[in-house]
Amino acid sequence: MGAWARARQGEDALPLTLRPRRVYILPTRTGIGAAVLLFLMLLAGLNYNNSMALMLCFLLAGVALVSMYECHRTLAGLKLHAAAAEPAFAGTSGHITLHFDNEDTRVRALLAVGCERSAPSLFDLPPAAMRPIRVLYPARSRGRQRIDRLELATAAPLGLFRAWCWLHLPLEAVIYPAPHGKRPLPPPRGEPLEGHRRAHESGDEDWAWLRPFREGDAPRSVAWKAYAHGGPLLVAHYEAPTGAHRLLEFALLHELPLEQRLSQLAQWVLDCEHRGESYALSLPGKHLPARHGPAQRRACLEALALHGL
After folding, report:
1. pTM for this predicted structure
2. Residues 252 and 297 both lie in one domain
3. Tens digit of pLDDT for each residue in 129-139?
4. Cα–Cα distance for residue pair 77/141, rounded to 1 Å
5. What is the domain extent for residue 233?
6. Can you tell me the distance from the alpha carbon of 57 to that of 139, in angstroms, rounded to the nearest whole number?
7. How would you write 258-277 as a 3-class SS string?
8. Same domain for 252 and 217
């Protein structure tokens, strides 16, 4: 059905208005059950020549037909102004942001939009309102992932019919390698500031903060003095001296397979960001200079996602 709809409609371009001819509608199980009951009611009214039963049957049939029209009309004319897919880590779920616009004077209720087998997002659109909707999509393997199709559906107002349409949008997401690996961060590089060097000549890193102990933490990083005085089990975090940075090198992990190397590098990127440290990334044919912050995190993870592809 989806392939036939794509061949019939082609690729969609934004902004997009849902025309009536691209909205499909079928009765739900509830609607089929209601149709069977109405048919039995019609047979009983004709058999016993009961005009009240016939009038009730025709009245309910009219309500069902009106609900079919309203269900189809809930989607027809709806506008989609913009769509964007956010990056995600492989094996998780990413988000797509869709901006819907209801220019009608009535509420478009019980709308659901979903991607493949991910749970759909449910929402209502008030009259003359624009609303951003976030939709989950499954992030499969690292690299660029094309999001082929979204489904927009509704069963309003009575649940007797279900109307839906396919959205074939130009959506593409960058899928980062799944962060994984337990290797320690490479030691800091570069020269610390002069005052900082004099104050901390005894080690490469400075104590930064304490956090609760988690399974897998090294025993040497536990703050045993605080624990001996009756405190909780805490782990000390350290950061590089001011002016230094860490070089995350692909070549350091030469004994690992490619995907495990990239996963370990992705984990190091997240660790450096969590510690607030500057870091550089070195890949074959690509080098990102030392920085830190959201832009550096995104640039490094995207370089890892597209490496070798």
Report:
1. 0.76
2. yes
3. 999 999 999 99
4. 36
5. 206-239
6. 50
7. HHHHHHHHHHHHHHHHHHCC
8. no
